[in-house]
Amino acid sequence: MQVHAAALVSLIPFVLFGCAENSVDAPMNVVIVTLDTMRVDPFGTYGNPGGHTPALDRFASQATVFENALTSIGTTLPAHASLFSGTYPKTHGVRWNGDHVSEDMLVLAEILKRRGYATGAFVSKPRLLENGLGQGFDAQDVDGLRPGIETNVGAKQWMSQQTKPFFLWIHYFDAHSPYRLSTYAKQGFARQAYAGPYIQGASIHQFYKFGQEIPATPEETDAIRTLYDGEVRAVDQAFDDLWKAVERFQDADNTIVVVVADHGQMLGEHDRVGHGFYLWNEVLWIPLFIRVPGQCEGGRVSTRVGIVDVFPTVLELLGIDAPTKPEGRSLAPVFAGKSLPPGTYFAECRALGNTKIRTEEEANAVAIFNGHTKGVLKAETFTAYDVSADPDEQHPISEERQSLRHRRLRARLEQYRPTFDNEIGPLSPEERQHLEALGYIR
Q1: How many Cβ atoms from other residues are within 10 Å of residue 393's Cβ?
Q2: 365: which of 160, 277, 369, 378 fits an S-S bond (Cβ 3.0–4.6 Å)?
Q3: Of the residues 306, 338, 370, which one is the last residue of a structural domain?
């Protein structure tokens, strides 16, 4: 059964359970797991009765689930920069995967290292560290692009050796295209009696060709989704392996665990595939689970939150003042049984001067989320949606029906919108090869 991501919001019970005070006195460890290109609709936690994430769903039942979390941008490196700095791309300046994180940007690992934490980063996409996110990490594993289960090997070994509070970042890349023919996907194809062009998987070329030849047949769309779900299952298995290690090697009851995606993925919705070039909800809506020892087990929070909120949340939970004021807000009140007030969130995407994937209409667009309204500014065109009544974004509010509130939201977007340089800066041959292999440039 395929479940459309944006439609899931109507399936979720919006509940916040009561929370207990944390009784742990020792400094808490921190584990942040980032799931590259992970939509919400593979999860049973987000309302899919035939979900593909049993291990992550089990973990979510022990954590607080944020039902309406948003990324700041649908591109890996800048989304992670937002995660670890609590700021938007407009502020931290990283807007695509060829940029580099400034050495002046103080990220979470540096702050915790100064507080005496051991810091380790084990990522399935090594250029995340090479492009600057390695700042503050004593241990860095950059052994090539690989499945998450292989990334776990070094992370588990490092974690088992720690004798002081530690901060572990582990990143899984499996759900990002290209898509392999996994055993799980092969089983799905057998049930579907599928024997089409994606029977052996989908290369980057095949994946983006699929998007360019919309309207695709339902069989093709289902096949791409089956391959994607197979990669999601691999992520779930990798997380299961890691979580068992946390419980075995360390005191899980003294460890804050954050599970979050950097962005989602278009799989044919709105006649689009991919992620870095779009502001549709399938890209911006991300899973977010936070497990705090002794607090809010099984809680659910329906208030909209953002990837920029993770940085201030972790610091407050650890009792550490942020050295600079983040643009995100702390979600720590949730873990004391308090509700969150509504907030306003932004997202953006950046055009690349020599890419053929993105249209001019979608270049340098920015979005704002406020209440039930999502507004998108592309060039000088402002489009508004009521995402409560129209979660699939099929029926924009006509200009005639837009109110003073909509005009104010547009003004906020015009103020937020960065000044973009559409040209890609100088790339090394290795950088160009890497970005071309992932379909970001052509």
Answers
A1: 19
A2: 378
A3: 338
Q: Which residues of 160-174 are buried (b: 16+ CB within 10 A; e: fewer)?
A: eebeebbbbbbbbbb
Q: Cβ neighbours of residue 120 under 8 Å, at least 6 residues apart?
A: 137, 138, 139, 140, 141, 155, 158, 159, 166, 167, 168, 169
Residues 86 and 61 in one domain: yes
42 and 190 housed in the same domain: yes
- Could you tell me which residue, 307 or 356, shows the higher pLDDT? 307
Q: Which of 141, 144, 145, 143 is nearest to 155 (CA)?
A: 141
pLDDT tens digits for 222-251? 999 999 999 999 999 999 999 999 988 767
Structure tokens at 228: 């994607």
Domain with 177, as residue range(s), is: 5-14+26-338
- pLDDT tens across 68-123, in order? 999 999 999 999 999 999 999 999 989 888 788 888 889 999 999 999 999 999 99
CA atoms of 158 and 146, how far apart (whole Å): 18
Q: Are 112 and 84 in contact (CB under 8 A)?
A: no
Are 329 and 394 members of one domain?
no
The Cα 158–Cα 122 span in angstroms is 10
Is residue 359 located within the same domain as residue 329? no
Helix (H) or strand (E) holding 260: strand 255-261
pLDDT in tens, 20-57: 444 446 789 999 999 999 999 999 999 999 899 999 99
Total structural domains within the chain: 2
Distance CA 383, CA 172 (A): 34
214 versus 323: which is more confidently predicted? 323
